[in-house]
Amino acid sequence: MHLRLLRPFASLCLAGLALSAVVSAQPAAARLAVAVDRQAAVLARLADDWRVGVNVPGLSAAVVQGDQIVWAEGFGAADVEQAAPARPESVFRLASISKPITAVAVMQLVERGLVSLDDPIQKYVPSFPRKIQGEVRIHHLLAHTSGIRHYRGNEFGLAAPFPTLESALGVFRNDPLEFAPGERYLYSTFGYSLLQGVVENVSGRSFEEYLRSAIFGPAGMTSTWLKHPQEIVRFRARQYVHGATPLSWLNAPYVDLSVKWAGGGLIATASDIARFDIALNYGKLLRPETLERMYTAGRLNNGARMGYGLGWMLSQQGSRQLVAHSGGAMGGTTYVLREPRARTASVVFVNLDNVPRLRELAEQLMALAPDPLPVSTR
User: Fold this and answer.
1) For 188-218, what is each residue's pLDDT tens digit?
2) pTM score of the predicted model
3) How many domains does the chain have?
4) DSSP secondary structure, 155-210, as one string
5) Domain assignment present for 5
6) Which of 41, 75, 152, 323 falls 20 to 30 Å from 88 in CA-CA distance?
7) Residue 374 pLDDT
8) SS3 category, 213
9) How far apart are CA 330 and CA 352, in angstroms?
10) Using an 8 Å Cβ cutoff, are 90 and 269 in contact?
11) Is residue 2 part of a domain?
């Protein structure tokens, strides 16, 4: 099996070079098994060394090549008090990685001709008042150019439940826009709450029911849900925040995510987000031309390009187009990094708030990923 090492992590690869003479003398099947085990050990060492270096309780990660999850593992503790280990099956808060999932749901409806990106939001959520600053349209909400504000005060940590979308919209519905739609970029989780209303109005189903049938099911995402605090979720990771002293952790305060289901209210395993990537790359959720539209940098009213498309953060490294999204939850930090043209991706979840350098780890894991196995193990 050809193992592509796209970045010069020489210190991690010396051990593999030392084994090469032994491996070459073995039959092909045995060489393949040794190569897979060796590369898994390299990835595991990289991930756990990173976890220890940034002082994170628990980490779960997955790597995609082609149509396979070629590596998935957990490190540290999913529950510190119970000494429960993090594992590939550990369920974390997705935080803002919920947004690309919501964006895909909306774009499915666009593909079917049921929604136009130029439609005003009031066509689907009539209870949201028109604003004197201008018309808020669907594409503004997807690209964070609507002018709808982000969190204020303690809104990031709201503990009260919001039993309906209308009650959740009450948090920001009557506030003025920060600017005329399309004038600037302003990241807004609340803007994505309105997109939940689009999905529900057009599909005639609850947001959760639509995601389950149109995205989770086709993608094989069996461990992804809206976060209902009262429900029992097997392998759910506990959430932690930084303590008052260096290298210390505290249990994260209780929060209810029903105020922002679409923008930050989902929970999942790293492997399920890897499956989401595969489903996108292989046409199970959207057509290629629709994905290309999502991966195209948005433009402001003055023509300036942004680093955000429709539900995805965008960047270019030479000829490589990278598509990503980060997430910050109360007690968690997440990152998904994708290179759709190469059909490779990496996903990293940790159960601690405000952890830096997740993209750095995601890039290294993706660079060190082995080639797909001859037979899919998904």
Assistant:
1) 999 999 999 999 999 999 999 999 999 999 9
2) 0.90
3) 1
4) GGG--S---SHHHHHTTTTTSPPSSSTTSS----HHHHHHHHHHHHHHHSS-HHHH
5) no
6) 323
7) 56
8) helix
9) 8
10) yes
11) no
